[in-house]
Specification:
The chain is about 45% helix and about 20% strand. Strands 1, 2, 3, 4, 5, 6, 7, 10, 11 and 12 form a ten-stranded mixed beta sheet that branches. Strands 8-9 form a two-stranded antiparallel sheet. It has two domains: about 210 residues, Spore Coat Polysaccharide Biosynthesis Protein SpsA, Chain A (Alpha-Beta Complex); about 120 residues, no CATH class. It is α/β, with parallel strands linked by helices. The chain is built from 13 helices and twelve strands. About 45% of the residues are buried. The longest helix has 25 residues. The termini are far apart.
Length: about 350
């Protein structure tokens, strides 16, 4: 079997009603579609079973998180390639063939499509992800016209909204880290692939529309910050983290500043992220040992794919973003150059 297209769903029946017809119209008899129902309470699973009996339905009684759902789907998949797609998307004809074609290159492990905004289809939601050395990730090309990202290019990370990966690489990496629960899993998977010598590619001719809107939902700050710390602690060597300390300290000041300016009532989530890492240090070290045991690339190679600036405008605060770029971009660039000079391996 060629590809397994896996959608992880949790109470997303309204999205599935739009997504599944578009996906089924583009797959071939050599492909399969798998729905992982992650503890839905809106009747999604029964609806899929009744309306789309040809789709493989995998049910979980509990919502174990996005990474857990992806791993569960992959355990039931038979394809040479695994393709993960958010239920709040629709796909264009040819998207799957274009997304899979670069994986014939043994150096490329992951591909991600041109993801456009569903409500404004001439603008980009994500052309892959960019990653800051502090672990903060943001949508590459987010909000820009589609003409801004027309060429295939290597990216720091794929977007979890839509991507493909070779099954053999997925098995080597052990799939996604289910302990993340939500957010940053896509960056972590990309970094781990890079550390064992693979590349991530943006494929502009594969087009997906995403019903995306910036939201700061319940516990989002906690998961984003905790998982960012996990990303750094798992993947980077101790010496690199020490050299990055000024960089990381400045990023902490910025995230705290954003939180207190725009969401002051949620400061506890940031503190809870620190506490979680401290209380679960043994688990963090175990994850770290697993990653470091199989790595073949240098931290320098990993950080070389990062960008030294932050996309402040993607927070939705445009005026503050302009000032942040003027004041902070030069400092981040300087710290980045110093760090890259000092990292020799």
């Amino acid at each position: 079997m060629r590809a397994s297209v896996i959608l992880v769903n949790c109470n997303g029946r309204a999205h599935l009603e739009r997504c599944l017809p578009s996906v089924l119209s583009t797959v071939t008899p050599e492909d399969e579609v798998i729905i992982v129902d992650n503890g839905s309470t809106d009747g999604s699973a029964d609806w899929v079973a009744e309306e789309f009996p040809a789709i493989r339905l995998v049910q979980s009684r509990v919502n174990g998180g996005f990474g857990y759902g992806c791993n569960l789907g992959a355990n039931h998949a038979r394809g040479t390639y695994l393709v993960f797609l958010n239920p709040d998307t629709t796909v264009c004809p040819g998207w799957l063939d274009e997304l899979l074609a670069p994986l014939a290159n043994p150096q490329i492990a992951l591909t991600t499509p041109c993801i456009l905004q569903m409500n404004e289809p001439t603008r980009i939601n994500a052309a892959g992800n960019e990653v800051h050395p502090s672990g903060l990730a943001f949508c590459r090309g987010g909000g820009m016209p589609v003409t801004a990202c027309m060429e295939p290019s290597e990216v720091a990370a794929i977007s979890g909204a839509a991507f493909s990966i070779r099954r053999d690489v997925w098995d080597v990496l052990g799939g996604m880290d289910g302990s993340f629960f939500l957010y940053v899993e896509d960056t972590d998977l990309s970094w781990r692939a890079r550390l064992v010598g693979y590349r991530c590619l943006y494929v502009p001719n594969s087009v997906v529309y995403h019903d995306y809107a910036l939201r700061f939902g319940e516990r989002k700050f906690f998961f984003q910050e905790r998982n960012r710390y996990l990303l750094l602690l798992k993947n980077l060597r101790w010496r690199t983290l020490l050299l990055l300390f000024p960089f990381l300290l400045l990023a902490e000041m910025i995230t705290w500043g954003f939180l207190m300016m725009y969401h002051p009532r949620r400061w506890r989530e940031k503190v809870q992220a620190y506490l979680w890492v401290a209380r679960n240090w043994r688990e963090v070290r175990a994850h770290r040992r697993a990653v470091q045991a199989v790595r073949r690339a240098r931290d320098r190679d990993l950080l070389a794919c990062c960008t030294p600036h932050l996309a402040y405008e993607q927070t939705g605060h445009v005026t503050a973003a302009r000032w942040a770029h003027r004041l902070l971009d030069p400092l981040f660039r300087l710290l980045y150059r110093i760090t890259m000079y000092l990292i020799r391996w």
